[in-house]
Amino acid sequence: MRYLFALVVSVVLAACAGPDRPKPAALAPNVPLMNVRAVWSGSVGTVDFPLDVRVVDGRAYVAGGNGTVAALDAQTGADVWRAHLDTPLSAGVGSDGRYAAVVSRANELIVLEEGKVLWRQKLKALTLTAPLVAGARVFTLSSDRTVSAFDAAGGQKLWQQTRTGDPLVLGQAGLLTAVGDTLVVGFAGRVAGLNPANGNARWETAVVSPRGTNEVERLVDVVAGFSREGNQVCLRAFQYAVSCVDAASGRILWSKTANGGNGVSGDAAMVVGSEGDGRLYAWKRKDGDRLWDVERYRFRVLSAPLVIGRSLVFGDDSGNLHFLSKDDGSALNRLMTDDSGIAVAPVLAGKTLLAVSRRGSIYAFRPE
Predict the structure, then answer these.
(1) Is 97 a domain residue?
(2) Which of 16 and 70 is assigned the larger pLDDT?
(3) Coil, strand or helix: which one is 16?
Protein backbone atom coordinates (compact mmCIF):
# COMPACT_ATOMS: atom_id res chain seq x y z
CA MET A 1 0.00 0.00 0.00
CA ARG A 2 2.89 2.35 0.69
CA TYR A 3 3.89 2.30 -2.97
CA LEU A 4 0.29 2.92 -4.02
CA PHE A 5 0.36 5.95 -1.73
CA ALA A 6 3.45 7.19 -3.56
CA LEU A 7 1.50 7.15 -6.80
CA VAL A 8 -1.47 8.85 -5.13
CA VAL A 9 0.78 11.65 -3.94
CA SER A 10 2.10 12.06 -7.48
CA VAL A 11 -1.46 12.41 -8.75
CA VAL A 12 -2.23 15.02 -6.08
CA LEU A 13 0.83 17.02 -7.08
CA ALA A 14 -0.08 16.77 -10.75
CA ALA A 15 -3.57 18.05 -9.94
CA CYS A 16 -2.02 21.12 -8.30
CA ALA A 17 -0.44 21.88 -11.68
CA GLY A 18 -3.58 20.98 -13.62
CA PRO A 19 -6.06 23.02 -15.62
CA ASP A 20 -7.86 24.38 -12.54
CA ARG A 21 -4.83 26.25 -11.24
CA PRO A 22 -4.82 30.07 -11.63
CA LYS A 23 -3.76 31.20 -15.06
CA PRO A 24 -0.28 32.70 -15.28
CA ALA A 25 0.18 36.20 -16.60
CA ALA A 26 1.30 36.53 -20.21
CA LEU A 27 5.04 36.63 -20.65
CA ALA A 28 6.54 40.00 -21.56
CA PRO A 29 7.98 40.34 -25.08
CA ASN A 30 11.41 38.76 -25.22
CA VAL A 31 14.31 41.20 -25.35
CA PRO A 32 17.48 39.11 -25.83
CA LEU A 33 20.21 40.69 -23.73
CA MET A 34 22.26 37.50 -23.84
CA ASN A 35 23.07 35.62 -27.02
CA VAL A 36 22.11 31.94 -26.97
CA ARG A 37 22.31 29.85 -30.14
CA ALA A 38 20.92 26.41 -30.89
CA VAL A 39 23.59 23.88 -31.90
CA TRP A 40 21.85 20.51 -32.22
CA SER A 41 18.76 18.52 -31.28
CA GLY A 42 17.94 14.84 -30.79
CA SER A 43 15.39 12.49 -29.26
CA VAL A 44 15.28 9.76 -26.65
CA GLY A 45 11.56 8.92 -26.30
CA THR A 46 8.85 10.26 -24.04
CA VAL A 47 10.09 11.23 -20.57
CA ASP A 48 7.39 10.13 -18.14
CA PHE A 49 9.63 9.42 -15.14
CA PRO A 50 12.01 11.55 -13.02
CA LEU A 51 14.92 11.60 -15.47
CA ASP A 52 18.38 12.62 -14.28
CA VAL A 53 20.66 13.68 -17.16
CA ARG A 54 24.21 12.73 -16.21
CA VAL A 55 27.23 14.35 -17.89
CA VAL A 56 30.66 12.70 -17.62
CA ASP A 57 33.74 13.42 -19.75
CA GLY A 58 31.79 15.16 -22.50
CA ARG A 59 29.11 12.48 -22.72
CA ALA A 60 25.50 13.07 -21.76
CA TYR A 61 23.63 10.00 -20.48
CA VAL A 62 19.88 10.21 -21.14
CA ALA A 63 16.90 7.84 -21.18
CA GLY A 64 13.28 7.66 -22.26
CA GLY A 65 10.44 6.08 -20.37
CA ASN A 66 10.13 3.30 -22.96
CA GLY A 67 13.53 1.88 -22.03
CA THR A 68 15.81 3.69 -24.46
CA VAL A 69 19.16 4.58 -22.86
CA ALA A 70 21.78 6.59 -24.74
CA ALA A 71 25.19 8.15 -24.31
CA LEU A 72 25.52 11.23 -26.52
CA ASP A 73 28.48 13.36 -27.52
CA ALA A 74 27.41 16.55 -25.77
CA GLN A 75 29.14 18.79 -28.32
CA THR A 76 27.59 17.27 -31.46
CA GLY A 77 24.58 15.24 -30.29
CA ALA A 78 25.90 12.11 -32.03
CA ASP A 79 25.22 8.75 -30.39
CA VAL A 80 28.22 7.24 -28.65
CA TRP A 81 25.95 4.29 -28.01
CA ARG A 82 22.21 3.65 -27.71
CA ALA A 83 20.42 0.69 -26.12
CA HIS A 84 16.78 -0.37 -26.24
CA LEU A 85 15.89 -2.28 -23.07
CA ASP A 86 12.27 -2.98 -24.06
CA THR A 87 11.06 -2.30 -20.54
CA PRO A 88 9.55 0.91 -19.10
CA LEU A 89 11.84 2.85 -16.76
CA SER A 90 11.17 4.43 -13.38
CA ALA A 91 14.61 5.93 -12.62
CA GLY A 92 17.90 6.87 -14.27
CA VAL A 93 20.39 7.65 -15.53
CA GLY A 94 23.39 7.17 -13.25
CA SER A 95 26.87 6.88 -14.71
CA ASP A 96 30.56 7.26 -13.89
CA GLY A 97 31.54 7.37 -17.57
CA ARG A 98 32.06 3.61 -17.82
CA TYR A 99 28.91 2.09 -16.37
CA ALA A 100 25.38 3.43 -16.85
CA ALA A 101 22.52 2.40 -14.55
CA VAL A 102 18.72 2.68 -14.71
CA VAL A 103 15.80 1.08 -12.87
CA SER A 104 12.75 -0.42 -14.56
CA ARG A 105 9.15 -0.14 -13.41
CA ALA A 106 9.41 -3.83 -12.56
CA ASN A 107 11.93 -2.77 -9.85
CA GLU A 108 14.91 -4.16 -11.73
CA LEU A 109 18.28 -2.41 -11.55
CA ILE A 110 19.93 -2.63 -14.99
CA VAL A 111 23.60 -1.79 -15.52
CA LEU A 112 25.15 -1.27 -18.96
CA GLU A 113 28.67 -0.83 -20.29
CA GLU A 114 29.10 0.80 -23.72
CA GLY A 115 25.43 0.09 -24.46
CA LYS A 116 25.52 -3.61 -23.53
CA VAL A 117 23.60 -4.94 -20.52
CA LEU A 118 26.08 -6.30 -17.98
CA TRP A 119 23.70 -7.46 -15.29
CA ARG A 120 20.27 -7.04 -13.69
CA GLN A 121 19.27 -7.18 -10.04
CA LYS A 122 15.80 -7.15 -8.51
CA LEU A 123 15.18 -4.37 -5.98
CA LYS A 124 12.76 -4.60 -3.06
CA ALA A 125 10.54 -1.65 -3.98
CA LEU A 126 9.60 1.10 -6.39
CA THR A 127 12.67 3.21 -7.20
CA LEU A 128 12.37 6.76 -8.56
CA THR A 129 15.85 8.05 -7.71
CA ALA A 130 18.56 7.67 -10.35
CA PRO A 131 21.24 5.18 -9.26
CA LEU A 132 24.58 6.62 -8.20
CA VAL A 133 27.61 5.03 -9.87
CA ALA A 134 30.82 5.79 -8.01
CA GLY A 135 33.91 3.96 -6.81
CA ALA A 136 33.17 0.85 -8.93
CA ARG A 137 29.85 0.51 -7.13
CA VAL A 138 26.20 1.20 -7.91
CA PHE A 139 24.04 2.65 -5.13
CA THR A 140 20.24 2.79 -5.16
CA LEU A 141 17.62 4.53 -3.01
CA SER A 142 14.13 3.01 -3.13
CA SER A 143 10.83 4.47 -1.97
CA ASP A 144 10.76 2.25 1.12
CA ARG A 145 13.95 4.06 2.30
CA THR A 146 16.17 1.11 1.39
CA VAL A 147 19.70 1.98 0.30
CA SER A 148 21.59 -0.79 -1.52
CA ALA A 149 25.11 -1.14 -2.87
CA PHE A 150 26.20 -3.43 -5.72
CA ASP A 151 29.50 -4.25 -7.36
CA ALA A 152 29.42 -2.33 -10.66
CA ALA A 153 31.25 -4.97 -12.69
CA GLY A 154 29.49 -8.13 -11.52
CA GLY A 155 26.27 -7.05 -9.82
CA GLN A 156 26.87 -8.74 -6.46
CA LYS A 157 24.95 -7.09 -3.64
CA LEU A 158 27.47 -5.69 -1.17
CA TRP A 159 25.16 -4.34 1.53
CA GLN A 160 21.65 -3.06 2.17
CA GLN A 161 20.24 -0.67 4.77
CA THR A 162 16.50 -0.24 5.33
CA ARG A 163 14.83 2.48 7.40
CA THR A 164 11.41 2.29 9.03
CA GLY A 165 8.75 2.94 6.42
CA ASP A 166 6.56 6.05 6.43
CA PRO A 167 2.76 6.05 5.96
CA LEU A 168 3.21 8.10 2.78
CA VAL A 169 6.18 8.55 0.48
CA LEU A 170 6.77 11.23 -2.11
CA GLY A 171 6.41 10.16 -5.73
CA GLN A 172 9.59 11.80 -7.00
CA ALA A 173 13.36 11.32 -6.89
CA GLY A 174 15.24 11.81 -3.63
CA LEU A 175 18.73 12.83 -2.55
CA LEU A 176 21.52 10.33 -3.29
CA THR A 177 25.05 11.62 -3.89
CA ALA A 178 28.67 11.24 -2.80
CA VAL A 179 30.71 13.92 -1.06
CA GLY A 180 34.29 12.77 -0.72
CA ASP A 181 34.14 9.29 0.79
CA THR A 182 30.67 9.78 2.27
CA LEU A 183 27.39 8.68 0.71
CA VAL A 184 24.82 11.42 1.40
CA VAL A 185 21.20 10.21 1.43
CA GLY A 186 17.83 11.78 2.21
CA PHE A 187 15.38 9.85 4.42
CA ALA A 188 12.06 11.67 4.81
CA GLY A 189 13.02 14.90 6.62
CA ARG A 190 16.50 13.68 7.52
CA VAL A 191 19.86 13.55 5.79
CA ALA A 192 22.43 10.87 6.59
CA GLY A 193 26.08 10.38 5.74
CA LEU A 194 26.80 6.69 5.16
CA ASN A 195 30.03 4.75 4.84
CA PRO A 196 29.90 3.53 1.22
CA ALA A 197 31.89 0.41 2.15
CA ASN A 198 29.26 -1.03 4.49
CA GLY A 199 26.30 1.37 4.73
CA ASN A 200 26.89 2.28 8.37
CA ALA A 201 25.83 5.79 9.36
CA ARG A 202 28.60 8.28 10.07
CA TRP A 203 26.11 11.01 10.96
CA GLU A 204 22.41 11.75 10.65
CA THR A 205 20.67 15.11 10.86
CA ALA A 206 17.05 16.25 10.90
CA VAL A 207 16.61 18.92 8.23
CA VAL A 208 12.98 19.54 9.19
CA SER A 209 10.42 18.09 11.58
CA PRO A 210 7.10 17.11 9.96
CA ARG A 211 4.06 19.05 11.12
CA GLY A 212 0.36 19.02 10.31
CA THR A 213 -2.88 17.32 11.29
CA ASN A 214 -2.81 14.44 8.80
CA GLU A 215 -0.35 12.26 6.89
CA VAL A 216 -0.51 14.37 3.72
CA GLU A 217 0.30 17.57 5.61
CA ARG A 218 3.15 15.79 7.41
CA LEU A 219 4.60 14.40 4.18
CA VAL A 220 8.20 15.53 3.87
CA ASP A 221 11.19 14.32 1.89
CA VAL A 222 14.53 15.63 0.69
CA VAL A 223 14.21 15.82 -3.09
CA ALA A 224 16.73 15.39 -5.89
CA GLY A 225 18.48 18.49 -7.16
CA PHE A 226 21.12 19.99 -4.87
CA SER A 227 23.99 22.49 -4.98
CA ARG A 228 27.41 21.48 -3.69
CA GLU A 229 30.41 23.67 -2.93
CA GLY A 230 33.16 21.71 -1.19
CA ASN A 231 31.58 19.91 1.76
CA GLN A 232 28.55 22.21 1.78
CA VAL A 233 25.43 20.67 0.26
CA CYS A 234 22.34 22.86 -0.15
CA LEU A 235 19.06 21.02 -0.68
CA ARG A 236 15.29 21.22 -0.52
CA ALA A 237 12.95 19.45 1.88
CA PHE A 238 9.65 19.12 -0.01
CA GLN A 239 7.05 21.71 1.12
CA TYR A 240 9.15 22.76 4.11
CA ALA A 241 12.56 24.34 3.66
CA VAL A 242 15.75 25.02 1.75
CA SER A 243 18.78 24.14 3.87
CA CYS A 244 22.55 23.87 3.67
CA VAL A 245 24.38 21.02 5.41
CA ASP A 246 28.05 20.34 6.14
CA ALA A 247 28.44 16.87 4.61
CA ALA A 248 31.59 16.18 6.64
CA SER A 249 29.85 16.48 10.01
CA GLY A 250 26.11 16.61 9.27
CA ARG A 251 25.81 20.05 10.87
CA ILE A 252 22.97 22.24 9.58
CA LEU A 253 24.54 25.53 8.45
CA TRP A 254 21.24 27.31 7.82
CA SER A 255 17.63 26.58 6.95
CA LYS A 256 14.92 28.82 5.49
CA THR A 257 11.21 28.11 5.16
CA ALA A 258 10.34 27.40 1.51
CA ASN A 259 7.24 25.75 0.04
CA GLY A 260 8.55 24.15 -3.13
CA GLY A 261 8.85 20.71 -4.65
CA ASN A 262 11.84 20.95 -7.02
CA GLY A 263 15.52 20.82 -6.25
CA VAL A 264 17.82 23.83 -6.04
CA SER A 265 20.94 25.06 -7.83
CA GLY A 266 23.67 27.51 -6.95
CA ASP A 267 27.29 28.55 -6.98
CA ALA A 268 29.81 29.80 -4.39
CA ALA A 269 27.74 32.93 -3.72
CA MET A 270 24.09 31.90 -3.95
CA VAL A 271 21.40 29.21 -3.90
CA VAL A 272 18.29 29.53 -6.07
CA GLY A 273 15.02 27.62 -6.33
CA SER A 274 11.34 27.96 -7.21
CA GLU A 275 8.28 27.71 -4.98
CA GLY A 276 5.27 25.57 -5.79
CA ASP A 277 3.43 28.62 -7.17
CA GLY A 278 6.25 29.60 -9.54
CA ARG A 279 7.94 32.29 -7.47
CA LEU A 280 11.74 32.28 -7.72
CA TYR A 281 13.93 32.91 -4.69
CA ALA A 282 17.66 33.40 -4.32
CA TRP A 283 19.50 33.11 -0.99
CA LYS A 284 23.05 33.97 0.07
CA ARG A 285 24.99 30.76 0.30
CA LYS A 286 26.92 31.75 3.41
CA ASP A 287 23.95 32.42 5.68
CA GLY A 288 20.65 31.97 3.78
CA ASP A 289 19.71 35.66 3.76
CA ARG A 290 17.35 36.56 0.89
CA LEU A 291 19.05 38.09 -2.15
CA TRP A 292 16.02 38.61 -4.38
CA ASP A 293 12.73 37.11 -5.48
CA VAL A 294 10.79 37.15 -8.77
CA GLU A 295 7.01 36.77 -9.10
CA ARG A 296 6.47 37.13 -12.87
CA TYR A 297 6.45 33.33 -13.41
CA ARG A 298 3.74 32.66 -10.81
CA PHE A 299 1.37 29.82 -11.65
CA ARG A 300 3.71 28.39 -14.27
CA VAL A 301 5.08 24.93 -13.55
CA LEU A 302 8.86 25.39 -13.46
CA SER A 303 11.71 22.93 -13.68
CA ALA A 304 14.52 23.05 -11.17
CA PRO A 305 17.00 25.77 -12.15
CA LEU A 306 20.66 25.71 -13.16
CA VAL A 307 23.14 28.46 -12.29
CA ILE A 308 25.74 28.97 -15.04
CA GLY A 309 28.21 31.83 -15.18
CA ARG A 310 26.39 35.15 -14.77
CA SER A 311 22.96 33.66 -15.37
CA LEU A 312 20.48 31.04 -14.27
CA VAL A 313 18.25 29.02 -16.56
CA PHE A 314 15.08 26.98 -16.04
CA GLY A 315 12.23 25.60 -18.12
CA ASP A 316 8.47 25.76 -17.81
CA ASP A 317 5.48 23.58 -18.69
CA SER A 318 4.91 25.44 -21.97
CA GLY A 319 8.38 24.56 -23.25
CA ASN A 320 10.00 27.93 -22.65
CA LEU A 321 13.62 28.06 -21.54
CA HIS A 322 14.20 31.20 -19.45
CA PHE A 323 17.59 32.86 -18.93
CA LEU A 324 17.81 35.30 -15.99
CA SER A 325 20.55 37.40 -14.44
CA LYS A 326 21.71 35.73 -11.26
CA ASP A 327 22.39 39.17 -9.78
CA ASP A 328 18.78 40.34 -9.61
CA GLY A 329 16.56 37.88 -11.51
CA SER A 330 16.04 40.19 -14.48
CA ALA A 331 15.29 38.53 -17.84
CA LEU A 332 18.19 37.99 -20.27
CA ASN A 333 16.61 35.81 -22.95
CA ARG A 334 13.86 33.28 -23.62
CA LEU A 335 13.87 30.37 -26.07
CA MET A 336 11.13 27.96 -27.10
CA THR A 337 11.66 24.19 -27.28
CA ASP A 338 8.36 22.33 -27.78
CA ASP A 339 4.94 22.60 -26.18
CA SER A 340 5.23 19.40 -24.13
CA GLY A 341 7.18 21.29 -21.44
CA ILE A 342 10.66 20.91 -19.98
CA ALA A 343 10.96 17.59 -18.14
CA VAL A 344 14.12 18.05 -16.10
CA ALA A 345 16.48 20.75 -14.88
CA PRO A 346 18.79 21.99 -17.66
CA VAL A 347 22.31 20.53 -17.58
CA LEU A 348 25.64 22.02 -18.60
CA ALA A 349 28.13 19.88 -20.55
CA GLY A 350 31.25 21.93 -21.11
CA LYS A 351 29.94 25.01 -22.93
CA THR A 352 26.78 23.26 -24.14
CA LEU A 353 23.46 23.62 -22.31
CA LEU A 354 21.10 20.64 -22.60
CA ALA A 355 17.34 20.72 -22.08
CA VAL A 356 15.01 17.71 -22.40
CA SER A 357 11.28 18.03 -23.06
CA ARG A 358 8.58 15.64 -21.86
CA ARG A 359 8.21 14.52 -25.46
CA GLY A 360 11.80 13.31 -25.21
CA SER A 361 13.34 15.90 -27.52
CA ILE A 362 16.84 16.98 -26.53
CA TYR A 363 17.84 20.58 -27.24
CA ALA A 364 21.43 21.81 -27.12
CA PHE A 365 22.32 25.51 -26.85
CA ARG A 366 25.49 27.56 -26.47
CA PRO A 367 25.08 30.63 -24.26
CA GLU A 368 27.60 33.34 -25.13
Answers:
(1) yes
(2) 70
(3) helix
